[in-house]
Design brief:
The complex is a heterotrimer of chains A (284), B (327) and C (249). With 284 residues, chain A is mostly helical. Helices cover 75% and strands 3% of the residues of chain A. Chain B has helices at residues 2-20, 27-52, 61-78, 82-104, 109-129, 131-134, 156-179, 181-191, 193-199, 203-229, 239-252, 258-277, 281-295, 299-306, and strands at residues 140-141, 147-148, 151-152, 231-232. The chains are: A mainly alpha (284), B mainly alpha (327), C alpha/beta (249).
Chain lengths: 284, 327, 249
């Protein structure tokens, strides 16, 4: 019994982390149809910047925002100067963003070296609590709460504000949106910045838990893509369901079938895609 | 067509060098050349899929890796011979792609990219985690050089010529395919699936077949790689390998076969050579990725053909994901 | 109709979410007939074509080609039954040459299309047929030109040529004179007049002169439904049709 509870909890917390990464990605995909292989790099760089902030100031909340903000700016730069001209050219996007990913990876290596680090988290968030027979690390709970908070804020933003409505319109039908006067390039840039911000936030949050190290960018990237594709491009509910699904499948897979764990994760994904190529919540 | 004749002469010259030079080369350049030829086969196989049919796959390394693992496992654990390994490796690659193709070919554009990514990750995951079979992260080492009857290919020069022969066979077969009626249909699919369908082509079938064909040739490359490297690990099937092969095709010029082969040579050379002089070779490689898109979207072959590069030109295949019929 | 109709649509409907583009259309075209499909923009004409050719699946209703129910048949199988179409927005293989485009069309229904190991050039009959079609539409001297370099009028001619390659029994022409000048329209009309009389034609046209020059029966569509169907003089005189055409442009 404890096993199932623990694994479920772990799966949910990992899914929560993925949600931070995937929520921005799905919006980017939805509005701009851009394939960005550097999305994992935002996670990486965000994590490292958060690390440095904590080292220098010891302030964890500051780290959360400084890292994310910095990466958001990098994201804007990438979008405006490089990606904007590659609209609809899927292969070019793949290659160019891959180039950036490698550059970010190498610069990170140069600046922070090759050793893995974990972001020191405040006393408040470390340790664990006990519920009957099961022990839960507090930090994992923090991740779940953080992701839930972000999810709620995003939902409110998308559903209840005008800016959110413009984004939803652009996701639904970019041409139409442009036709009714929505400044799609500005929306694209904003969404891209938001996506990068969230990915970096994920990196800082994840930094206290899975750590920050060279290679984490390409480790989380496929997961993020799978969540987005399975959930459906541009769909926030899809990102929520997808992240939970992936988090749970990954955890249970690793716990129950360690040798086949990636298979148990990606194979159901492939099957879902075979049946519904646009994802669970995607528009057909 | 002096442009074409010049190119043929150039290629013949390169071919002559490839044939005649090696006995005079020292070990290191020779291994680089061998590696380049192996990746050339891999890149050409992807060109069939990408350059000719317009299908960008982010998981092509899966078939390369499956074949390499088959060789590694069969030689180290079952002491299988050259021909056995060849047959099994090719069968494995085509079988895996036949299964994956059923899932992937229905999708187009970005979705195809993502499904192939996921499928590539399935193979990577198995390579990484199925430790009892693949030794996981440690990889399988000790793959011996092949023997063909009384001849051993342990010596670097001998193995080089084996690789060159395989490359020429692969090139020859691929040239036949792209010049055949089937090959022509692939270009039609790249240009306009909708038109092909309305003309009477079973587009799904043609795409499915090219998927398997491309995977089989990738498997051929993987087969050689296992022998060349003596060591096979999950690196062979990781996402980065698939993306790098896309770069080779884009750099060389999609839809030309020879272009991607050259692109492969350039990237192999770059990676190995540059890393001798600086630790920042990843940075430079990243720069190459970006540079190709910005300055040579038609690849090297395209640049040679037009004499100068064309700014902001697309990479030649249909941009918007084309929705085929409802079936 | 005593003979098997070339095309028979029964209660055909297509809805996109809430938008009903085609509503319960019934249509019957006899073999060898020339029928014009007219209607204002948005009437559902191209959607109807897409349903007939198989690009779209209907929400309801049935489609028959020469007596055979093709409602659930994919596009390429319908082509094998003798259906061909042209597109309103030119849909050619733009980076290939004129000859290559025709070769592609000519081999579409032949077994050679799956031949892997012999070069295309070893099948001379494909080239002969491709050239013959180019000759019949007057594009022989352009065979080596890359299609995207052709003029708009020549590309529209190519559309017809491509559709003829498979020896169709039923030809759907979607606005063949779209974007053509007056002179080019006349040439196109002449070309279409010379088509084999055995081929059944269904033509979407906005240009009434062209429509009535090529056909004698007309079906008028409005908001996805058939509002008139019969001989062109009848339809021309139909008050509803007049209202729609005098009311709009």
């Amino acid at each position: 019994m404890e096993f199932w509870v623990t694994q479920t909890f772990n799966g949910i917390s990992y899914g929560a982390l993925l949600f931070l990464l995937a929520s921005g990605l799905t919006l980017i995909f939805g509005v701009m149809r851009i394939v960005n292989l550097a999305h994992g790099s935002y996670f990486l760089v965000g994590g490292y910047m958060g690390l440095t902030t904590v080292w220098r100031t010891g302030n964890f909340p500051l780290a959360l925002f400084s890292g994310s903000l910095a990466v958001a700016l990098i994201g804007i730069g990438m979008e405006r100067m490089f990606l904007r001209r590659l609209k609809n050219q899927v292969l070019a996007q793949v290659l160019m963003t891959m180039g950036f990913a490698l550059i970010f990876q190498d610069l990170a290596l140069l600046i922070w070296g090759g050793d893995p680090y974990t972001i020191p988290v405040p006393r408040l968030l470390s340790g664990s609590f006990r519920l009957s027979l099961v022990v839960f690390p507090i930090y994992r709970l923090f991740i779940i709460l953080a992701a839930a908070a972000v999810g709620i804020v995003l939902w409110l933003f998308l559903e209840k504000t005008r800016a959110g409505a413009t984004i939803r319109a652009a996701v639904d039908d970019g041409e139409m949106a442009q036709g009714v006067g929505i400044n799609v390039p500005a929306v694209s840039m904003g969404v891209f910045a938001l996506g990068a911000f969230l990915a970096a936030l994920g990196g800082v949050v994840g930094g206290g838990f899975i750590g920050v190290y060279p290679g984490v960018d390409f480790e989380v990237l496929p997961y993020a893509f799978v969540v987005v594709i399975v959930g459906g491009l541009g769909s926030l509910p899809g990102a929520i369901v997808g992240s939970l699904l992936v988090g749970l499948l990954d955890n249970f897979g690793k716990a129950l079938f360690p040798e086949l764990s990636y298979f148990t994760l990606f194979a159901p994904m492939a099957v879902i895609l075979a049946l519904r190529p646009t994802g669970l919540f995607g528009k057909v | 067509m002096t442009g074409g004749r010049r190119r043929t002469l150039g290629l013949l010259a390169v071919g002559a060098l490839l044939l005649a030079l090696p006995p005079f080369l020292s070990a290191y350049p020779l291994t680089l050349l061998t590696q380049g030829l192996i990746y050339a086969i891999f890149a050409m196989s992807l060109d069939l899929l990408l350059g000719y049919t317009g299908l960008a796959s982010l998981g092509h390394a899966a078939y390369f890796g499956v074949a390499a693992y088959v060789v590694a496992i069969m030689t180290t654990m079952h002491h299988a011979g050259f021909w056995t390994c060849l047959v099994l490796a090719l069968i494995a690659a085509s079988l895996v792609s036949a299964i994956f193709g059923l899932v992937a070919i229905r999708a187009v554009g970005v979705y195809f990219l993502m499904i192939t990514l996921a499928l590539g990750m399935v193979v990577w995951g198995l390579a990484f985690r199925w430790v009892s079979l693949t030794q996981g992260d440690n990889g399988i080492s000790g793959v011996p050089r092949p023997r063909l009857g009384p001849w051993s290919f342990a010596h670097q020069t001998a193995f080089y010529y084996l690789t060159l022969a395989t490359f020429l066979v692969a090139l020859g077969l691929l040239l036949l395919v792209v010049r055949s009626p089937y090959g022509m249909s692939l270009r039609g699919i790249r240009e306009s699936e909708g038109r092909m369908r309305s003309l009477g082509y079973n587009v799904w079938l043609h795409k499915y077949l090219v998927f398997i064909l491309a995977a089989t040739f990738a498997g051929l490359a993987g087969f050689l790689w296992a022998y060349y490297n003596g060591f096979v690990s999950p690196v062979e099937v990781q996402l980065i390998t698939s993306v790098e092969t896309l770069l080779m095709v884009a750099l060389g010029g999609p839809g030309t076969l020879v272009g991607p082969a050259v692109g492969a040579g350039v990237i192999v050379f770059l990676k190995n050579f540059v890393s001798l002089y600086t630790k920042r070779w990843l940075l430079i490689l990243g720069g190459v990725y970006i540079g190709v898109i910005l300055f040579a979207p038609q690849g090297l072959m395209g640049a040679l053909r037009t004499g100068h590069h064309q700014n902001r030109k697309t990479l030649g295949w249909p941009k918007r994901a084309e929705r085929g019929g409802p079936w | 109709m005593t003979q098997v109709p070339a095309l028979s649509l029964t209660d055909l409907s297509k809805a996109f979410g809430g938008l009903r583009a085609v509503k319960g259309v019934a249509l019957c075209v006899a073999p060898g007939e020339r029928r014009a499909l007219i209607g204002p923009n948005g009437a559902g004409k191209t959607t109807l074509f897409n349903l007939i050719s198989g690009e779209l699946a209907p929400s309801a209703g049935r489609i028959s080609l020469f007596g055979q129910d093709v409602t659930s048949l994919p596009s390429h199988r319908r082509a094998a039954l003798g259906l061909a179409r042209t597109f309103q927005i030119t849909n050619l293989f733009s980076s290939l040459t004129v000859l290559e485009n025709l070769l592609m069309a000519v081999q579409a229904l032949e077994r050679t299309k799956l031949m892997l190991l012999r070069p295309v050039s070893s099948y001379p009959h494909l080239f002969a047929r491709a050239r013959a079609i180019l000759e019949s539409v007057g594009l022989s001297d352009k065979e080596g030109d890359v299609v995207k370099n052709l003029s708009h009028g020549e590309q529209r001619q190519m559309e017809i040529a491509m559709a003829l390659a498979g020896r169709p029994r039923l030809l759907l022409l979607d606005e063949p004179t779209a974007g053509l000048s007056l002179a080019e329209s006349r040439l196109m009309t002449e070309l279409l007049k010379e088509l084999d009389s055995e081929i059944t034609l269904l033509i979407i046209e906005h240009d009434m002169d062209v429509a009535f020059a090529l056909t004698d029966r007309v079906t008028a569509l409005h908001n996805g439904s058939v509002i008139a169907d019969g001989h062109r003089d009848e339809v021309k005189a139909n008050p509803l049709v007049r209202e729609i055409y005098l009311g709009s442009a």
